[in-house]
Every structure is written in C-alpha cells, then in structure tokens.
Design goal:
It is found in: Membrane. It catalyses: methylamine(out) = methylamine(in); CO2(out) = CO2(in); NH4(+)(in) = NH4(+)(out). It holds the Pfam family Ammonium_transp. This protein has 14 helices and four strands. It is mainly alpha-helical. The radius of gyration is 22 Å and the shape is globular. 48% of the residues are buried.
C-alpha cells in the first residue's frame, strides 16, 4: 500500500490523541477553574444539546451501509476532544484574573463549538482518517472561537441559534476542505456510497433526536428562551410539511426520499436560529421554515450533483443543503428583521449592516480556514484511506463478519431441529 494510503493507526493515532489530551490537561491545570457562582438552571438545556451532539449528529450520519461504526464512533471521538478544546479557546476570550471559569453555560458553548467540526465531518464522511479529523477539530474550533468573538463582541450581531456562526461556518469550512481534498477516483459513484433499509432507519433516529431537541439548541443561551423555543418549534413543523410535499413532487414516481426526510426536515431549525429569540411572530418563523425546506430539498435534488461534477466538491452528507444554505438564509433573515424593526440586545441596537458583516466574515473565515486546513490534511502521512476503501469501516475498525438472512434462518432452523430432537 502506498505511504499516502497507510491506514495503520497503531502508533500515529495513539501518539497524537494522547499528546493532544496531555496538552489539554496541562492547559486546564493552568487556566481553568470552577465558576465561583455556579447555577444549575441551564442543565436541562445542556442535556438536550449534549444528546444532539452525541446521538443526533452521530446517528444522522449512519446512512452509509458499511460506515456505521465510523459515523457514530468518530463522531464521539471528535465531540469528546472538541468540547474540551472548545472550553479553552472560547474561554481565552473571556478570562478573568487569568482564569477560565467553567459553568453550565460554558459547557453548552463548548458543545456548540464541537457542532461545527461535526458538520464539517459530514462533508468529509467516509474519506478521512481519525488522525485527519482530530487535526481538523483542533484547527476548526480555534477558528470558530475567533469568528464567534468577532461576530458577537466586535460586530455585536445577534445569532443566538448560530445559523451563521455554527451552521454556515461548519458547512463551508467542510466544503472548502472537501474541495482541496477532492478525489478524482470517486467521480463515479463508489459502491459503498449508498444506504440500505436498516442504515437509513438508524439515520432517521438521529433526525428525530435532532428535530425534538432543536428548540433547546436555539434557546439554550438566549435571554428570551420561551420566544426562541416557540419560533423554532413552528419553523421546524412548517419545514417538515413542506419537505414531505416537495420530496414527493420532485420524484418522478411521486415517492418520498429518505435522504430528504432525514435532512431537509431539520433545515427550519437551522434557518430560524439567527432571529430565534426576536419577536418575529410565529407566522414569520413558519415562513422561514417553509423557505428553508424548499431551499434544502431543491439543493439536494439539483445543486449537489452540480457541485460534485462541476465544482469538484464531494459533499457526502449534503451539509451544504442542511447547514450551509439554511445558515445563509438565517443570516439574511436576521438582516431583514433588524432592518424593518428596532431590536436591542445587551444595550446595543442591532443593525442590518452589522448583521451582514457578521455573515460575510463567517463565510470568509470558514472558506479560507477550511481550504488551509484541507491543505494540511492532504499531507501524505496522516493515514488517509484509499479510494477503493472509502466508506468502509474495515479500514479502521475490527468489523464482525456479516450474516446474510438465509444464513441466519438456516442457523436458527438447525438449532430448532436439535432442540426438537432432544425433546
């Protein structure tokens, strides 16, 4: 096997993972301490967001028929490292007396930072090694923290549900990395780049967890939590109905597509995020959800093939349609809302110009950062998998032998016969 496709993780991955964990522990020992005035009021929201990160995102990516171990397993790895690193890089912007105070809110924000890396992971799913994903997580969360500080503290823009800073950032960061890591050998569809009945059912579990807990995601750190919950609730509901309708409409036989139902039904939660805690009225939230569902479905149906064939961006999970386009839509909604009505947050009047600057900076930093990270991940010794072994757990996991249905039936029949003979 050529050195650029060396998937032996015995030493390289172990050394890198342990080295990063030691660095994190040392930094925590120096800089991190308990919040002197802690509160547990946000713990239910933290639980909901935590479930979304580990179960929702993890199972959403299990649709590939031979990549379930990697989808859930690497998701867990990225999240476990990312939330530790997120506390640090976000905390460095808010240090008091040389210390980073840890509380429930900072843990929620750390989960938010981890979500960006998991979104990017979706664009690269099946084509990267665990070493590459650890490096991407390290770099992306660092850039995310810088962009978030720019958006919220410098521009003083509102983005409570993080349509821009998490969803658009994570999507375009991952797409830029995918562009740099483009594989000509995957131009024709890979035999493992498809789902089965059962893998799609597992992915739908992820969708349902994300759908149910998305109001908590958008309202977790909001001042007007109830408003954010209500707006997200109605946006998701309207988006889901439109997604089902369009899924049938764009299919030649009028049938539903599981890919669209798994993903586009969530676009309403993404798109309403920027103005989730603003009093936009439930009907506006529903309208945002309707537009998000339309944009997401049409993106999956028509834009994804063009991106793969013309732009050389192989987006495995379609994060552009679930997170990228709805994230931009959310940013545009924030610009429109602040233009037509006066909104004040933290004593600062929100303006459409600063909202637009926040959206522009997010996209710019994401694309440039993703491309630079992709160039680093392209280094030949980082254990990337060959084209032939993409989308296959066996490159990095011990995988049990699969039993076909006839084999299972035959074995059970033999056991039944032996039991009857013994009676």
């Amino acid at each position: 096997m050529p050195p650029d496709f060396d998937t032996n993780m015995k030493f390289k991955f172990s050394i890198l993972a342990l080295f990063l964990e030691v660095i994190v522990i040392v930094l925590y020992g120096i800089f991190v301490d308990y919040d002197p005035d802690p509160s547990s009021s946000l713990y239910p929201h933290f639980q909901d967001v935590h479930v979304m990160i580990f179960v929702g995102f993890g199972f959403l990516m299990t649709f590939l028929k031979k990549y379930g171990f990697s989808s859930v397993g690497f998701n867990m790895l990225i999240a476990a490292f990312g939330l530790q690193w997120g506390i640090l890089v976000q905390g460095f912007w808010h240090m008091e007396r040389g210390k980073i105070s840890v509380n429930i809110e900072s843990m929620i924000n750390a989960d938010f930072s981890t979500a960006t890396a998991l979104i990017s992971f979706g664009a690269l799913l099946g084509k990267t090694s665990p070493i590459q994903m650890l490096i991407l997580t390290l770099l992306e969360i660092t850039m995310f923290a810088c962009n978030e500080h720019l958006v919220t503290k410098v521009f003083k823009a509102t983005d409570v549900g993080a349509s821009m800073t998490i969803h658009a950032f994570g999507a375009y960061f991952g797409l830029a990395a995918a562009f740099v890591l483009y594989r000509p050998g995957l131009t024709n569809k890979h035999e493992n780049d498809e789902s089965t009945y059962h893998s799609d059912m597992f992915a739908m579990i992820g969708t349902l967890f994300l759908w149910l807990f998305w109001p908590s995601f958008n309202s977790a750190i909001a001042d007007a939590q109830v408003t954010a919950i209500i707006n997200t609730y109605y946006s998701l509901a309207a988006c889901t109905v439109v997604t089902f309708a369009l899924s049938s409409l764009v299919d030649k036989r009028g049938k539903f597509s599981m890919v669209l139902i798994q993903n586009a039904t969530l676009a309403g939660g993404v798109a309403v995020g920027t103005c989730a805690d603003l009093e936009i009225h439930p009907f506006s939230a529903m309208f945002i959800g309707v537009i998000a569902g339309m944009v997401s479905v049409l993106g999956f149906q028509f834009l994804t093939p063009v991106m793969a064939s013309k732009l050389k961006i192989q987006d495995t999970c379609g994060v552009h349609n679930l997170h990228g386009l709805p994230g931009i839509l959310g940013g545009i909604a924030g610009i429109i809302v602040t233009a037509v009505k006066t909104e004040i947050r933290n004593g600062h009047v929100l303006t459409p110009a600063l909202q637009a600057a926040a959206l522009g900076s997010t996209l710019g930093i994401a694309i440039v950062g993703g491309a630079l990270t992709g160039a680093i991940l392209k280094l030949p010794f980082l254990g990337q998998v060959s084209d032939q072994n993409c989308f296959d757990d066996s490159a990095y996991w011990e995988v049990p032998e699969e039993e076909t249905i006839p084999e299972i039936y035959s074995r059970h029949r033999e056991e039944h016969n032996r039991f009857e003979a013994a009676m």
